[in-house]
Write a structure and sequence with these properties.
Blueprint lengths: L6 H4 L2 E6 L7 H17 L5 E5 L6 E5 L5 E5 L5 H19 L1
Parallel strand pairs: 1-2
Antiparallel strand pairs: 1-3, 3-4
Helix pairs in contact: 2-3
InterPro entries: NADH_Ub_cplx-1_asu_su-2, Ribosomal_mL43/mS25/NADH_DH, Thioredoxin-like_sf
Subcellular location: Mitochondrion inner membrane
Organism: Brassica carinata
Length: about 100
Amino acid sequence: MAWRGNISKSLKELRILLCQSSPASASARTFVEKNYRDLKTLNPKFPFLIRECSGIQPQLWARYDMGVERCVNLDGMSESQILKSLEDLVKAGGATKA
């Protein structure tokens, strides 16, 4: 999973939007609990923004160069699917810089 260390090289910002209590956000909450520390350790100065809002659908937002943003709806995804979505967003950002 070498891509985890390249997040700060591929993206400008990563936002995770989730609800603190809804079942739809359960996997997103689990993803944050299990992966945040590792991702932040590998990318210490990178802005990982966790936004909690009651009733919101879970989403993953990636911001690239020039203000370009991509969103992935996390509703119904498992933790491993969320990780794969993040990997795809990171790799997409690296492809635009090549």
